[in-house]
Fold each of these.
Amino acid sequence: MGQRAAGHRFMPNRLVFPGGRVDLADRAAPAAAELRPDTRAALERRAPPRLARALAIAAARELEEETGLRLGGAAPHLDVLAYLCRAVTPAAQPIRFNARFLIAPAEVAEGRLQGSGELEDLAYRPLDEVLALPLAPITARVLVEFRAWLAMPEAERATRPLPFYRGQEHRFLE
């Protein structure tokens, strides 16, 4: 996680996960290994196949751009990604996002943790301590989902209902 700079217009001084938008190049970028079927199916519930894959490529690219960490070598290993949840800001918000939260085991990340300047104070943070830090509200909700995911038997993770947030309070299951 990293802290957004005080000068950011959107969620300044809040701890967030690396992320960003899908670039046009993400739709055709190569991967060293493709998505697992369960992760692909989760992404394709609300996105066409080409966009679903591009979302995973974008997650790997943004991770590298914002933290210096890679999911594999020059081309990402998408097969390490799991789908956690999705969040969409309400239409009335002036700055909006439609985010899919993908997770991967920390041990698969290669490289040295170093930022590009978009996120400050980059660090791995203990889950038990991070909820007391200045998080973006949706980040706090995602961490609760992550804790629940970790507590599940591995065999149940791929078949669980997928959490979806509209705003910060409205949780649905896809």
Note: The first strand starts at residue 2 and ends at 4.
Amino acid sequence: MGFLSVIAAAIAGFGFGAVWYMTLSKPWLAAAGIKCDENGKPIGNGSPLPFVLSFIAMILVSGMMRHTFALSGINTFGKGMVSGLGIGLFFISPWIMINNAYGMRPFKLTVIDSGYAIFGCAIIGAVLTVL
């Protein structure tokens, strides 16, 4: 059952990311410095690789969160959601900030990407504790 909860949580986190970045696509593209064509679409080869890597990352995050939750006795929806928020806010977001600061990226990019980390981890935590 643990494997299925990890996959479900990864799908939920990935799905939330799709909604998050579709909603914030224009400010994210501008903050990330990605060039767009005259139709507002990113210029490039449109490789599926970033999506594949993102889903693999969601499986890894969900799996480690499940392991941590099991060891810590986090087994309710509320505890899972709050713990996920904490992981996103206090583990992942600072790392994003460090990477973006050294890369001289706009702080707006840190805010957008950290928002996904915070709320995505909250969703993953909630899903892990209900399945």
Note: The chain has a mean pLDDT of 95.
Amino acid sequence: MNTSIALDGKIALVTGASQGIGAQVARTFHVAGAHIVLNHPGIGTTAADAQRIADELNALRSGSADVIAADVADAEQVQAMMREVKALRGGLDFLINNAAIIKDRTIAKMGLDEWDAVIGVNLSGVFHCCKFALEIMRDHGAIVSFGSIAAIQGFFGQANYASAKAGVQAMMRVLSREAARKNIRANAIAPGVIETSMAATIPENVRAEMMKNIPLGRFGTTQEVANVVLFLCSPLASYVTGQTIEINGGWRG
């Protein structure tokens, strides 16, 4: 029985891969042998950041990483991205739906534009990517989409974000049934608080309160999240589909 994970010859598309967890997922899949397609939305420094990561991966293994710009909230851009993946690499084996934005505000104060923007990227974006990825995905592939502890805990001021992430988790349960005929597995992960640049902005007093709910007594790392994504796409998880895997240090607040 071989328990190692080798993804040589496989193609993995990671959305929102220019920084944070998405970048770490890209690096982790690359170490396992996969060819990586790094998606970014083309705003701010995301293009340069994604290209820097691709250059890093290509320096380690020539021709092993591509970069494609697409706003996942835009269905036409996503469809064009999948066509480009097909043209470049012949198809797709793994889709990791990581792209997300946050615009926190109480329901009473939340603007309709703030609701629409978060739902557009975090929920509709996952739908767009799954819909058009299925057109180019090979049999026995895997889709992993990012839910969140917010969908479970219902944090103050996150009605848009929590709703989107709960929807993603439900969507993966539906997709696990619909994609099973091609032996494509679909799962969600629900990370807790992970040490990223976003988490670094959390005030110390709030961090201390959060820690009280975490039995392991710390926030997670991007590598710990990437490891679970890798497992879910590997043959080791060949009978795992339609699940939401919580990665939260035991948070039960």
Note: The first strand starts at residue 11 and ends at 14.
